[in-house]
Amino acid sequence: MIKLYFGNKQTFVWNPEDACTLRKKYHIVGSLVGRYPIKPFQTQNKWLPFQLMPEETKLLIDKDIAQLISLLKENRRQQILEKADQIYEGKKRKYLENFKKRKKTKKNPEISDISKEEKTSQSKTSFVEEKSNSEKNSCNIKIEQLNNLKKDCKKIGNKDASETIENSCDSEPINIDKNTIIEAELAKITGVSKELCRVQLFTECPWKHKTLPVILNYPSTEREKIRCAVYKDLWEKDYYITAGSKFGGDFLAYQGDPLKYHALFIVVCMCEEQTLQGYDLVVYGRLGHQVKKTVILASLDEEGQVDYVTVDWEGEMT
């Protein structure tokens, strides 16, 4: 089954083989909206992805030709919040290890330099020191005071007092705020800037990803229902159908592939309560005569069947 990817309220086909199958076998034309790989900065030639109209998507789903899915979007913020406890324990463990190493360095003056790995680890955990609460700050002040007092005791030769102070320093509690750590991790999440974006060849990813089935909420209005019914009826009559906005209609109907044939009809969908004035007929007639196409007014009858009325300009246009 062909996979249709739904994103940003649009339907796309990313697989080139599926795009060819839709065009050759099922008469689904769609439109290429991606950049041309050879000349990515020009706008005349397009490439994958293959964008479908809502009517094309609805038809493929109803005929069980394709399945509408969406990729499971990774939410980095949600992942951090779910693993908050693990992140907190890891950061706390690293901080305590670095704290012990700093104490060792102070006790042994011969060790003057810290290895590069330790420096990197210290830089990663430095935000904990900067954003800790007032209790931790006061704790650090107490530790420094105790260390100074311990040195003074060693100078005067009082070993018992020095050992007592050292034990009290080791047992001093260290407070690390969990919320501060999580907020710092969330602050690292930033969007990709325009300068960092590269031109890519849009095609279906070869690796498997988790996907979610999507329910298409279309058609929802009377006009959308008429458009779907008209599109389905023309498709079942083996016409190729494209968007007709460039000629002032809803659809353009082709006898064959649009790459080989010109459009035969400009299809205009009419709602049941929509009024049609005389000048509207003149406009549609002159339009069809000017572009050498037949304008068709399509509507639904009481039984839900599609009715067609052609508007053609006879004689010379003055």
UniProtKB/TrEMBL annotation:
Domain tRNA intron endonuclease catalytic: 226-308
EC number(s) on file: 4.6.1.16
Localisation per UniProt entry: Nucleus, Nucleolus
Keyword Nucleus annotated: yes
A GO CC term attached to the entry: nucleolus
InterPro entries: tRNA_endonuc-like_dom_sf (IPR011856), tRNA_intron_Endo_cat-like_sf (IPR036167), tRNA_intron_Endonuc_cat-like (IPR006677), TSEN34 (IPR016690), TSEN34_N (IPR059049)
Occurrences of domain TSEN34 N-terminal (ranges): 2-70
A biological-process GO annotation: mRNA processing
GO molecular function terms listed in the Swiss-Prot or TrEMBL record: nucleic acid binding; tRNA-intron lyase activity
Domain of life: Eukaryota
Primary location recorded for the protein, binned into one broad class: nucleus
Residue spans of biased composition, Basic and acidic residues class: 107-131
UniProt keyword annotation of tRNA processing present: yes
Keywords: Endonuclease, Hydrolase, Lyase, mRNA processing, Nuclease, Nucleus, tRNA processing
EC main group: lyase
Region of interest: Disordered: 99-131
Active site positions: Y254, H262, K293
Function: Constitutes one of the two catalytic subunit of the tRNA-splicing endonuclease complex, a complex responsible for identification and cleavage of the splice sites in pre-tRNA. It cleaves pre-tRNA at the 5'- and 3'-splice sites to release the intron. The products are an intron and two tRNA half-molecules bearing 2',3'-cyclic phosphate and 5'-OH termini. There are no conserved sequences at the splice sites, but the intron is invariably located at the same site in the gene, placing the splice sites an invariant distance from the constant structural features of the tRNA body.
Subunit composition and interactions: tRNA splicing endonuclease is a heterotetramer composed of TSEN2, TSEN15, TSEN34/LENG5 and TSEN54. tRNA splicing endonuclease complex also contains proteins of the pre-mRNA 3'-end processing machinery such as CLP1, CPSF1, CPSF4 and CSTF2.
Similarity-based family: Belongs to the tRNA-intron endonuclease family.
Name of the protein in question: tRNA-splicing endonuclease subunit Sen34
